[in-house]
């Protein structure tokens, strides 16, 4: 299943956006898609009531899959569906060990609910493969890449953006982002952030890495920019109107994992563009 995109599905609009993005990516990669719906357990004492609940939930999930499977067939993308009992984040994390990419939608939430228990944050921290998080309004708000920009839109319109910091993960993040940009015919921009304004002239470690990218992808338009300010805010602003934002699971914060208050989670919760999270830790081998 390594060449499979796992898509978390429910009846929500953000789930529909995730499915649309995943099918487009699968077609580009010539991969297959597996739609997965998780049915959460219920705390009831009566086994008969519990059984009726699961039968109804499984039946409703199967109906949700119908239009998605038809869409996949119309695009020529091999697809299947599964209904699994369990909490969504637990189910998707477990199945991610057998996929190349897991895709979920994200609705705009604020406060306590946005910081704790988020499926997207849990996957970004613990998935065994890459994770793509698609904002609920992405399809509606994303401008056409060949369209005319309205006044005030971001300068990285249509780019693949990679949020990078100096460290052992930087080369891999840039390589992944470059492959994606090359495949989609988009410019690549590496964004670093200097909170104190000390690196206004750019990150000294980036030119050598970009040189390697240019050698491998001589036709790719790539550049770097160092911004000054709050890392999460600056990266989110830079990614506005971007085709894709690529970050590591350590994000730009220097902190391991997705943790409370980290830059990675702040970006995941606020960006208006799709975000691809590349694990900084070694990936687990596929289980049979």
UniProtKB/TrEMBL annotation:
InterPro entries: Universal_stress_UspA, UspA. SUPFAM superfamilies: Adenine nucleotide alpha hydrolases-like. Pfam families: Usp. Residues 1-135, 158-279 form the UspA domain. Transmembrane segments: none annotated. It comes from the Bacteria. CDD domains: USP-like (cd00293). Belongs to the universal stress protein A family. This is Universal stress protein. It comes from Pseudarthrobacter scleromae. The lineage of its organism: Bacteria, Bacillati, Actinomycetota, Actinomycetes, Micrococcales.
